[in-house]
Every structure is written in C-alpha cells, then in structure tokens.
C-alpha cells in the first residue's frame, strides 16, 4: 500500500513510500506507465533489484496500480511502442510517425553536415562534456540522446533533470526501447537526425542512461554501444568525438588509466574514425597511458587530440551541478572528469571552426 506520494515532477517520476508487510520503504513510480498514485492505493511492485542487493537501480519499482487499473495506461497520441511485447509496453508519438509535426524533417534529411557528436560510455560523463561545451560556447544548443543500453526511462536519471534545470542540456531524445525524452525516436539514427533537424542542436551527446551493465569479459558491457554510435555518426555525415573512460582512482586494474572498455570500443568496435579527446595530464600519468593510447591509434583510424579539461570542471562547479562516478566525486577521481570535459571542449572548438569557415 502507498503510504506517502510526492510529485508529479517534470521528469515523469513519482517518489512514493510503500508498506511491505509492515516495513515502510521507498519506491519509484513512472507516471507514463502507471499513472499518478495517491495515498492508500494498492500497488504491485517489482522488488528484484533490492532483493539482489544491487547498487544502481537497487530500488523498488511500481508495476501497476491495483486500486485504479485504468490509471495504468495513460492515453498517448502515438502508435510506436516502447518496452515492446512486455506487460509494460507503452505507446509514444515517435518523431518518425506521420502524425508527428516534425516527421517531414526526418524524411527530408540528407546529412548531419559535420555536426560534432560526442560518444561516451558512462552516464556520469555527460555532465562534464556538456559543461566543457558550454564553458567555451555558452550559447550553443546541446541535445542528449539516451540509448537503451542501461536504464530505459530517462526519468530515472536525476542527473539529466539537473542538467536541464541548470541550462547545460537543452533537449533530450530517447531512442530504441528508452523512453521519456523530449523527442522519441525508434533508433539511434533517427535520434541523431532529430537532434540536429528538430532540436536544432549545435552539438550532440550520445550515451546510455544510468546503470551500465558489465562483466569481466572483453565484450560483455553495455557501454560497447559507444563504438556503434561512432559508426552511426559517420554514416550520417557527422563528426564523431570519443570520450575516454579514464581513472587513476578506480581500484580495478582493468579500469586504471584508460579503461579496457575504451580500448575495446576504439580498437575493435568502431570501424569509422573518431577524434579521441585526451586531457592534459601529469608526466607520470601520461606515461602510464602511453601504451593504451598506442593501442587505440595503431590502426591509424582515430585522431588523438590533447586539450585541458579544466574549463568544464570549473563550469560544472560554477553552475552547482553535483555528479559522481562509481560513488567518487570530481575531486576524488579528477582525471575521469577531465577526460570527459576535454571531449566537450574539442566539440566546442569544432563549432567555432565551423562558424569561422
């Protein structure tokens, strides 16, 4: 039973407290799936993540409002289903549909015309990428495309809501099975097209939502989509920028220096070129990642571009945005955030170059 309910919020998420056999515990309700809840409603919960003791995503989720079943399926003007062929499938008005006022822009698309698109792996990277961009180009419009590699409802991301409130992200797009963005797209390609042609973005960030899935194997991580995004950007005529996952604070050897995830993505998955943003580091740190950079650049496909990422860190703090990665703050894992910021700065400089031409 629902004992307390908040919201609604702009993110489409309602935080509630539920009574489970006498224990009051928090739960998340997605209004798009289950409608608004009120105190006293009986609800069906998914408790799996809490039962397993998971970190990210380790909360209860409302499946259905048993007291008011009609509230479970709020009306939608669209016909494209997300979470397809599951009991929770929901209809959205996708940007590709004839009934969408923007569908003609998708049909008439020819090229991204060199628009810089930053492709990254971890959700926490998007904050500093956006800050690096805005630090150099404060008037630039930034669109964030959330893929379906991790969390599917964009409302689950408190970070995205914060970035929109602080003016660091101007528009959101959810593609594939992900849902809840300002724009809905069937796949990454139309997501990229709508970012430029509908959202009028000067730069685009592509990344999965919170909750990266990974196992101790070369290809077993959801952030491998970063390489697929690099390929898609090139196919559509954009300029792909790769943000490195880098850390000197992560206790796991496979993620020290440049993560093996980034090496795998750039060496084996992306078969189209990207500009790889590398932050300025100390001499000792630069030496520590030399062999990893050599692996990435061995094919001659990618171009390394070194720049300071300090501006993005400063901008993020100035705007009062709080972000962590794996529970570590900016000061605890500075190089991770410098790497992300440098990718945003590279993109901002590319916008400057385009304007000057």
Can you offer a commentary on this structure?
The chain has 357 residues and is α/β, with parallel strands linked by helices. The chain has an eight-stranded parallel β-sheet, sandwiched between helices. A five-stranded mixed β-sheet has the order 1-2-3-5-4. It has a two-stranded antiparallel ribbon with strand order 6-7. The model has no long low-confidence stretch (mean pLDDT 92).
Short description:
The protein is built from twelve helices and 17 strands.
What structural keywords apply?
alpha/beta, 357 residues, Rossmann fold, 12 helices, globular, eight-stranded parallel sheet
Supply the CATH class of the largest domain: Alpha Beta
Instruction: Characterize the biggest β-sheet.
Output: 8 strands, parallel
Radius of gyration: 21 Å
Order of helices and strands: EEEHEHEEEHEHEHEEHEHEEEHEHHEHH
Helical content class: 25-40%
CATH topology of the largest domain: Rossmann fold
Structural class: alpha/beta
The tally of structural domains comes to 2
CATH architecture of the largest domain: 3-Layer(aba) Sandwich
Strand content: 15-25%
Structure summary, number of beta strands: 17
Report mean pLDDT, rounded to a whole number. Answer: 92
Taking the alpha carbons of the first and last residues, their distance comes to: 62 Å
Low-confidence blocks of residues: none
Shape designation: globular
Strand order of the largest sheet: 11-10-9-12-8-13-16-17
């Amino acid at each position: 039973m629902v004992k307390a309910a908040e919201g609604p919020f702009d993110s489409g998420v309602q935080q509630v407290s539920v009574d489970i056999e006498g224990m009051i515990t928090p739960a998340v309700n997605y209004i798009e799936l289950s409608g608004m809840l009120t105190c006293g409603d009986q609800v069906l919960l998914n408790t799996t993540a809490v039962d397993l003791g998971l970190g990210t995503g380790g909360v209860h989720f409302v499946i259905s409002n048993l007291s008011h079943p009609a509230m479970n399926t709020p009306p939608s003007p669209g016909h494209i289903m997300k979470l397809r062929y599951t009991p929770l499938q929901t209809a959205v008005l996708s940007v590709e549909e004839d009934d969408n006022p923007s569908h003609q822009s998708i049909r008439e698309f020819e090229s991204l015309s060199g628009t810089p698109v930053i492709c990254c792996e971890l959700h926490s990277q998007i904050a500093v990428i956006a800050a690096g961009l805005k630090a150099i180009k404060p008037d630039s419009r930034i669109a964030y495309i959330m893929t379906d590699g991790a969390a599917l409802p964009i409302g689950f991301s408190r970070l995205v809501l914060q970035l929109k409130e602080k003016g660091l992200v101007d528009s959101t797009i959810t593609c594939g099975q992900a849902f809840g963005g300002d724009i809905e797209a069937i796949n990454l390609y139309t997501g990229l097209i709508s970012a430029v042609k509908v959202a009028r973005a000067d730069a685009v960030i592509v990344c999965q939502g919170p909750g990266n899935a990974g196992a101790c194997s070369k290809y077993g991580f959801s952030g491998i989509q970063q390489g697929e995004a690099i390929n898609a950007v090139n196919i559509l005529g954009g300029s792909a920028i790769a943000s490195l996952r880098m850390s000197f604070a992560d206790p796991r050897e496979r993620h020290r220096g440049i993560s093996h995830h980034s090496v795998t993505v750039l060496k084996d998955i992306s078969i189209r070129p990207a500009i790889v943003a590398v932050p300025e580091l100390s001499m000792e740190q630069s030496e520590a990642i030399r062999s990893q950079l050599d692996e990435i650049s061995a094919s001659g496909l990618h171009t390394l571009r070194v720049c300071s990422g300090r501006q993005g860190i400063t901008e993020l703090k100035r705007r009062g945005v709080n972000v962590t990665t794996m529970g570590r703050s900016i000061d605890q894992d500075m190089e991770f955030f410098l790497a992300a910021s440098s990718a945003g700065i590279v993109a901002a400089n590319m916008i400057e170059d385009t304007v000057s031409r």
